[in-house]
Amino acid sequence: MKNKIVYILLLLGIISFKAQVIGTLEQFEECQKRPNRDEGCPDLDNITYVKDTNNRLNQFVGIWKGTYNGKQYEIHFEKQLQWGEDIKWDRIFGRIIIKDNSGNIIYNSLNKSLTEAGLLRGGNFQNRVYVMHFVGNYDCLESGNVFIETRINNPNEMTLFYSQDKDGLLNPAKCPNFSTFVPLLPTDKITLIKQ
Questions:
Q1: What sequence ranges are listed for the domain DUF6705 (predicted)?
Q2: What is the per-residue DSSP string for 110-175?
Q3: H/E run at residue 91
Q4: For the chain, give me the number of helices (H) and strands (E)?
Q5: Most buried residue, 18, 19, 128, 159, by most Cβ within 10 Å?
């Protein structure tokens, strides 16, 4: 009787076990380049984990600093493995501290959890550029993609570019100064230096 119970439990465990099917960041990057990309990538539908098999994300990990337009930017990039709900991804997250030219803190997300708004959240590569997403003051439509890339001839230098979506419905009561609102991240390409 004991053996039957053990076998039944073992069988139930095997049936309920879902095997992890691993894909790579490169496969999903290639998928975006296909002429029929709007149809999806049926060959990748069963992937449960998108892994950074070639450690391409490691080049971004660390603390990066730069200045632009009188502001000091410090971004702490970290790599997280198997992040997400249905499909797990290896991703880069960035926590930010921004200071004015007097050293006063304008923005600080260093203590925010990875699930809170206000962080840079990694997506995937477009050639050498890693695409991330940022949501700041959404009431003022501050959200968009952030593009980061290390230089080939100097991996301790990174360029960062923010492309603001300005998607959504603007409620003037929640963002009364929209016409003069300046996003936290610069919409011009800036250079950051690895510390």
A1: 1-113
A2: TT--TTSSSSEEEEEEETTEEEEEEES-GGGT-EEEEEEEE-SS-TTEEEEEEEE---S---TTT-
A3: strand 88-99
A4: 2, 11
A5: 159
Q: What is the pTM of this model?
A: 0.85
Return the residue matching tokens 């998928």.
31
Residue 179: name the closest of 138, 135, 141, 133 by CA.
Answer: 141
Task: Compute, in degrees rounded to 10, the torsion defined by CA atoms 68, 74, 79, 85.
Answer: -80
Report whether pLDDT(71) > 70: yes
Q: If we measure between CA atoms, which residue out of 71, 75, 45 comes closest to residue 148?
A: 75
DSSP state of 93: E
- What's phi and psi for 120, nearest 5 deg? -85, 130
Write down the domain spans for the chain: 2-194
Tokens encoding 145? 């993609």
Q: Residue 160 is encoded by which pair of tokens?
A: 């960062």
